[in-house]
Amino acid sequence: AHIVGYVSSVNQNEIGEDPLLELPGFKIGKNGMERVLDKRLRGKAGNSRVEVNVMGRRIRELSRNDSVPGETLSLTIDRDIQKFTADRVRDESAAVVVMDIHSGEILSLTSTPAYDPNDFNLGISHKKYDALLNDARKPLTNKAVQGEYPPGSTFKMIVALAALEAGVIDEHEKIFCNSKYEIGNTTKHCWKRQGHGHVAMVEAIAASCDVYFYEIAGRVGIDRIHDMAAQFGLGQKFDINIPGEKSGLNPSKGWKLSQRGVRWKGGDTANVGIGQGDVLMTPLQLCVMMARLVNGGKAVIPKILSPKKNARGNEAETEPEIPLETIAFDRRNMAIILKSMAAVINDPMGVAYAQRMRDKAMSFGGKTGSAQVRRITQAERDVRVRKNEEKPWIERDHALFVGYGPLENPRYAVSIIVEHGGGGSTKAAPICKDVLTYIFEQEKKQQQGTDV
């Protein structure tokens, strides 16, 4: 429903100059791709000018314009993968995006819960619409492109790459984590109460050490973090023909001064260093970020329309092919990031080690994240704040995961958010594992069929 949208009756404001819209019962696209591509899908009505006598009988045809059929457009969405992801997160308030890391083709774009487009097609009642509008799980929102969330620890690869590129740290330097980090008069905390001890970059990403990233974010500064994030898609709209796409928020010193009238502080940089604070990303942006990280630095652009013959037998128009730019970074630094993301899943020190695959051909890498919905007060810390599952649903952390697979010669990027789902390692990472497993198994079946 969130991709295709729905059609509904025309209102007076929409009739305009198209006489076709005045026909009784005629419907046009009101949401989703039905809305954005309405004119291309609808085609153009024909008309005929005729001369009649006083009795109203036709004498001759003066002119004629034949109707033009609408285009038949094809999506990049893989029906089977889309169905699997939708079924997998059916009971959650969630979004899943699956993308080919080389072509940018979106294979699945799921947002749950969804609405029934037939309700709008037939005319929805005020009671039912109000129920959808007031549902805390936001069924009318396409979370994959309209949901903006703090990326949490999934953002740490951007911070790490910015720090490596700036030369403020290397792969081997260790930073001590005792679970606390002082910035001025403020104390920041690591998620691990007892701390991680001395950690270098690979372990810091694999174990998701917050103190490590408070430190390196402060060293590299918000300007270079902002610039690196922009190269990986943050702050951009990709115009994939789905209405309402958000651009997220890639904060900077200038942004804070212009929007809030106050100067940027070190504490702001520390927050961004762990994907909290002002930084916001959509699940689509998270998937693009992962694709660009693992495809060799090609600035791949997501797309959801694919070429296909239209009803007139011509090649249907799709998004124009744009030559891919290459993101400038040292390949040795990117190798460190890839090694770190592989360790998240495949090394015992990784926070998502429980999701590892025993079949190396199906192994994958990625990064977990938990986005804080409500700040934890010092008083709550002193009494050992309640577990996430003990909080009201609306106050629980969001669970995130960005993944790629297979480890060798990656082909797919996946991003997942489960709203108020808690930990990324326990809630979102298993979803990624299941999605990639399904894709790999389908590929294996197809290959076996080809071999036969």
TrEMBL record:
Give the enzyme class: hydrolase
Q: Which GO terms describe its molecular function?
A: penicillin binding; peptidoglycan L,D-transpeptidase activity; serine-type D-Ala-D-Ala carboxypeptidase activity
Q: Which GO terms describe its cellular component?
A: plasma membrane
Which UniProt keyword terms apply here? Carboxypeptidase, Cell inner membrane, Cell membrane, Cell shape, Cell wall biogenesis/degradation, Hydrolase, Membrane, Peptidoglycan synthesis, Protease, Transmembrane, Transmembrane helix
Location in the cell: Cell membrane; Membrane
Q: How does it sit in the membrane?
A: Single-pass membrane protein
Q: What EC number(s) has UniProt assigned to this enzyme?
A: 3.4.16.4
Residue intervals of the Penicillin-binding protein transpeptidase domain: 95-436
UniProt xrefs under InterPro entries: Beta-lactam/transpept, Beta-lactam/transpept-like, PBP_dimer, PBP_dimer_sf, PCN-bd_Tpept, Penicillin-binding_protein_2
Q: Reply yes or no: does the keyword Cell membrane apply.
A: yes
* Coiled coil start-end: none
The Penicillin-binding protein dimerisation domain is annotated at 1-62
What Pfam families does the record point to? Answer: PBP_dimer, Transpeptidase
Gene Ontology annotations of biological process type: cell wall organization; peptidoglycan biosynthetic process; proteolysis; regulation of cell shape
Q: What is its main location?
A: membrane
> What NCBIfam families does the annotation carry?
pbp2_mrdA (TIGR03423)
**Name this polypeptide is given:** Peptidoglycan D,D-transpeptidase MrdA
